[in-house]
Structures are given as C-alpha cells and as structure tokens.
C-alpha cells in the first residue's frame, strides 16, 4: 500500500475508534455517527489529494500532529451534530486539546525543517472548521450572530471568486495569529458554561470585534496592493480622404427618350490619400 494512501487511511481508522469511544461513554446517535464518518471520509480524501498535488509521498511529523487535531475536531463535530446537549465534560476537553496542539504542529514543522504550503493550509483549514463547529454549537444559547465568527473565513474565500484581488498572498502578521487563536479559546470558554450568559455574550462579542478588525485590515491591504489594470494601447484612427473629385459621369435621359450619341468613357479611378488623424483609445 502506498504511503500516500496509508496516512489518510490510518486517520480514518482512528476517527472510527474515537467515535466508538464516544458512543460507548457518553452516547452517540445515528446523526453523530454519520457526521463524524462523513467528516473523516472527506478529510482523508482531501488530504490524500493534497499530498499527491504537493508531490509528497507521506505525512510529515507536523502533518501528523495536525491530523490528530483534525480527528479531535471530528469528535467535537459528532457531539454537536448528535442533537442532544453535548456533554461539557467531553466537548470542552476535546476542544482544549485540539487548540493546544495548534501550538505544537508549527513548532514541530520548524524544528524538523518540514514547513510546507500543504501543512500550513491543512492547519488553517482545521482551525477554521473547529471555529465553525463551535459557533454552531453556541448559536442557540449566545445568539445567531456568533455564526459570523465561524463563517468569516469562508466568506472571505467566497469573496475572492468574484473579486480576484482578494485571493492575493498576504504578508505574515503575528497579530493575525493571535486573533485566530483567541477565537478558539473564547469559544471554548463560552461552551464550558462557566460564565454567566451576559459575560459570555460580551466575551464572544469582543472576540468577534477583534476578528472583524483583523479581516478588515487584510482586505484593506489586499485592496491597496491589488494588481493594476492593464493599460489600453492607443489605436490610430484612419481616415480615407479623396485626392481629387471625380468628374460627373454622363447620364442618359430615359424619361425623355433620348440616347447619348456615344458612350462616355469610364471615369478614371479616384486616387485616395490615407492619413492618420489622431490616436484614439481602442
């Protein structure tokens, strides 16, 4: 079995074992099982495709840490989708471990010299999906507006389709990483139920404000550095000017029944001169 297939397949097996553990401890209904398995299938399929596109034959050390995080997120998804009240004693620890490992995979990549575009994209997608799942979980208690936190990154990507300049490469910015990490911590605290409802809503609203500021700064930077529109080359306008007027041709008078004595010779061709009048844009 190829190593490209082996890594994602191991992840699929581990995801099944995690779901089985949740089902045997806190209980997991059909909806939770279906959501968890569907998530694992899509995750491993996309990961395998990404490995082939990157020309990698196996997961790197940091990618394995990110895969572990992704599988924990699959467990959180199963608990949220299951429909019943997700047990805080299981949901919050799974989320906390997934967030803690977010600080590990980057260090592992740098220390082992395995930093890659695939690893960075993999890490970002796992973070984004965890925020989306937690936002959906908190929406009934905090308010529908909390979904903006989970959907912000996906709206940003969708906006780059009609606006190609938004798909540009952003420069590294430490504050962006701080804001992204703060979102997960705040949503995990809100999911724990340790704070009063007013304090929870205020905390989440503050996190949302930071996120809007961070995305707004990125959009402004992309707008200022968008590619300039290609200049339009002027096309000269050509005017045809007759050099001399042709003599009027002889005409018959059919209405009077008259016929000319001799057929007039054809008029000579009129010479023309071409001159460039002005440069006009195409």
From TrEMBL:
The highest taxon in the source lineage is: Bacteria
Which keywords does UniProt give here? Membrane, Transferase, Transmembrane, Transmembrane helix
GO MF, one example: phosphotransferase activity, for other substituted phosphate groups
Q: Where are the transmembrane segments?
A: 33-51, 71-101, 129-154
GO BP annotation list: phospholipid biosynthetic process
Q: What is this protein called?
A: Phosphatidylglycerophosphate synthase
Does the entry feature the keyword rRNA processing, yes or no? no
The protein's matches in InterPro entries, at most eight in alphabetical order, are given as: CDP-OH_P_trans, CDP-OH_PTrfase_TM_dom, CDP_ALCOHOL_P_TRANSF_CS
Q: Does the keyword Transferase apply?
A: yes
Which Pfam families is this protein grouped with?
CDP-OH_P_transf
In the record, the note on similarity to other proteins reads: Belongs to the CDP-alcohol phosphatidyltransferase class-I family.
Q: Name one GO cellular component term.
A: membrane
């Amino acid at each position: 079995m190829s190593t490209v297939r082996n890594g994602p397949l191991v992840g699929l097996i581990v995801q099944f074992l995690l779901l089985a553990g949740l089902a045997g401890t806190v209980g997991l209904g059909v909806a939770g099982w279906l959501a968890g398995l569907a998530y694992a299938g899509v995750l491993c399929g996309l990961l395998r495709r990404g490995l082939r596109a990157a020309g990698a034959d196996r997961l790197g050390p940091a990618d394995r840490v990110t895969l572990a995080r992704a599988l924990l997120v699959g467990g959180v998804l199963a608990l949220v989708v299951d429909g019943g009240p997700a047990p805080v004693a299981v949901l919050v620890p799974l989320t906390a471990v997934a967030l803690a490992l977010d600080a590990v995979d980057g260090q592992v990549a740098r220390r082992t010299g395995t930093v890659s575009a695939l690893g960075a994209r993999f890490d970002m997608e796992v973070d984004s999906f965890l925020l989306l799942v937690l936002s959906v979980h908190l929406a009934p208690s905090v308010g529908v507006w909390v979904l903006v936190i989970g959907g912000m990154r996906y709206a940003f990507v969708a906006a780059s389709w009609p606006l190609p300049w938004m798909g540009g490469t952003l420069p590294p910015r430490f504050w962006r990483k701080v804001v992204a990490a703060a979102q997960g911590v705040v949503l995990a605290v809100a999911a724990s139920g340790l704070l009063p409802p007013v304090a929870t809503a205020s905390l989440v609203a503050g996190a949302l404000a930071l996120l809007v500021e961070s995305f707004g700064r990125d959009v402004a930077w992309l707008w200022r550095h968008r590619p300039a529109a290609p200049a339009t080359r002027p096309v000269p306008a050509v005017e045809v000017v007759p050099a001399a007027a042709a003599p009027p041709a002889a005409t018959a008078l059919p209405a009077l029944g008259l016929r000319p004595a001799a057929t007039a010779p054809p008029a000579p061709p009129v010479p023309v001169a071409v001159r460039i009048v002005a440069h006009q844009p195409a």
